[in-house]
Write the structure tokens for this entry.
Amino acid sequence: MTAGEEPLVLVETQGRVGLLTLNRPRQLNALNDALMDQLGAALLAFERDERIGAIVIAGGAKAFAAGADIEAMADWSFMDVYQSGFITRNWEAVRQVRKPVLAAVAGYAMGGGCELALACDIIVAGESARFALPEIKLAMLPGAGGTQRLPRAIGKAKAMDMCLSARMLDAQEADRLGLVSRVVPDAELRAHTLALATQIAGYSLPALMAIKEAVNRAWESSLSEGILFERRALYERFASDDAHEGMHAFLDKRSPVFTHR
Ligand code: HXC
């Protein structure tokens, strides 16, 4: 970004919540390299900042993000994407974040925009939210995790339908299928998501990170391996100040004071 240029990602904090707003409204937040560089850097900065306990990624009213930037990609060669590590290089920063990441989705979440939301831990959808993986219309492929995360989220039959026919889901159907965590009126989306993130960020950060890690394990291992991982994570809780504080505060009938240790 050069001096005087609008940032492609707006960065704010509200208490222990870091809020990132995608900011290419004229292109419906189409995700180009510069935007994904800024998003990745901002995510990793919040990850390092011990004052931050949860992160929200929001888009605009008409679009969360309408996908990877088609204009930028149209003339790329195999060698261009291979050598630059397209997607891997900057889109996967969200995977490195151990703190909870919430997506606040209004309007279109298409292609890479849908995949970005899917990479978050919680999706709060406004009633206007629309989810699609329409890459097939371009003879492309949902290549930012879509073919892998979508079937895990909503099952193979529904995922195949979305990927092969470009079918778009509205917020209510996305809610029924388990693609989103909750649906709220558009006018309440930002406040609702920030309140949820504030609630989450008020809990013990190492406990949140352990839970996120364990839930993500459920996607990536057998049940018995996952249960073993969970049991170890449970035992580790007994090495944490916050877990003792949380249980004693309950017994003392007072609010816990977490130190995130
Ligand atoms: C670049 C985009 C864009 C995109 C919209 N725009 N989506 N530019 N890449 N993905 C631009 C349009 O060209 C237009 O620019 C402006 O944003 C407004 O869009 P309109 O099409 O005029 O708006 P509307 O008629 O309301 O339609 C909204 C829409 C449509 C249904 C969301 O824009 C659309 O279908 N967009 C493409 C969605 C898509 O195919 N996404 C997947 C991309 S591939 P101008 O200059 O004309 O005003 C992908 C691969 C991911 O994501 C995996 C590998 C990375």
